Each structure stands twice: as structure tokens, then as C-alpha cells.
Fold this sequence. Notes:
The model is unreliable at 211-218 (pLDDT under 50). Among the domains are: 57-164, no CATH class; 187-217, no CATH class. Helix content is 63%, strand content 0%. The protein is mainly α. The chain has nine helices and no strands. Helix 3 (57-76) packs across helix 4 and helix 5 (113-131) packs antiparallel against helix 7.
Amino acid sequence: MLPRxxxxxxxxxxxxxxxKPSTRGYNYPQWSSVFLSLADPYASSAHKNAMEHLKNxxxxxxxxxxxxxxxxxxxxxxxxxxxxxxxxKKTVHKLVSLEPFVVxxxxxxxxxxxxIRRFYQENLHKRNQEFAGLNADAIxxxxxxxxxxxxxxxxxxxxxxxxxxxxxxxxxxxIALHQVAYVRIVGQGFFHFLNEAWMAGHDVPPMLKQFETxxxxx
Length: 218
């Protein structure tokens, strides 16, 4: 059963504060029953799709390792002993099983093996940081309950690595064909996210500084 209170409260707030004001003058009471009948299955479907999307983290992990090995080959000016995808699958299998790095496992890969070791250790540290030593099966069992935020953070970290290695990228949450997405975030968290973006030199809404001033005064 879905945690109705949480997502229903958030969707109602979004509807009342964002959607409803934009539809003034288009009030059709006879549509109310239609809206109500669609709200529950829509929210349930959105929740399910988001959770299913987060289960793709092993596939996303493979993408960054494919990108890593392609870049590794160029940086070291070597021909890999197998395709980047094959080496990526080997690495992902070891990572999701939480196996420690063993140099001899990579003796057939030419170039600087320590470079592979460093990135492997970085990956292993990030997984342990977010999932406290859980393997892939245990993580999937907890999707939608206690690990949702961890999976979003982990997916964001992988996405940054995909960008660094010019690998195929993805959206943090599924986006429909009409490009509408929904993610739950509290106002304070959203402010800190925008603040970090602003400090990193990105464009942010001009209201950010006014919001910051209001926050300091209150």
C-alpha cells in the first residue's frame, strides 16, 4: 500500500498553490468528479514509475564504467584486452557484490591499473556511504521505503560521472513525453539546492536573494 498521506498532501499542495491559480476563469464544477477519479491512479502510477526508474542504478553504473574504460584507453594510449562494455560488466558485478579490488584480476588490462583501482575504490566508497554495505538485492527490496533519498543521491552522483566520461546520460526521475516531472522536496531543501547552484556560478531565479534575506530576518 502506498504511503498515501505523504504524496497526497504534496500533490494537493502543488495543485492548490501552482495549478489552481493558473486556471482562474476556467472553473467547471461538472469536471470535479473526473479530476477526483484521475488523481489517485495518476499519483499511484507516478510513484510506481519513479521507484521502477530508481531500480536502474546497476544499468547506470555500467554506463559510467563503459565511459571510464573508453577514456582509460585514450588516456593511456592502449588497446583494451576486451570491449569497454565487457570490462564494465565485470566491474559492475564486482561492485554490486561489494568485492574488494584485486590487482591480479586486472593484470590482462594494459595501462595504469592503479587508475582503475582508484576509481573502483571511489565507487565502492560511494556505495557504502549511501547503502551501508547492502548488496544489489537488498537495495532493491528497500526501494520506495528507507532508501529512496539515498538512491536519488547515488543516481545523481553516477549522472555526474556519466557527464565526466561522456557516457549516455539519464534523468534523475522519469519524465513523460510532455516533459512533466514531479519530485517531492521541502522548501528549505530547495533553497539550499538553489544556493549551491548559485555559488557554483549557475543562473538561479532572482527571487533567491530575496528569499535569503527573508529567511535571515525570520
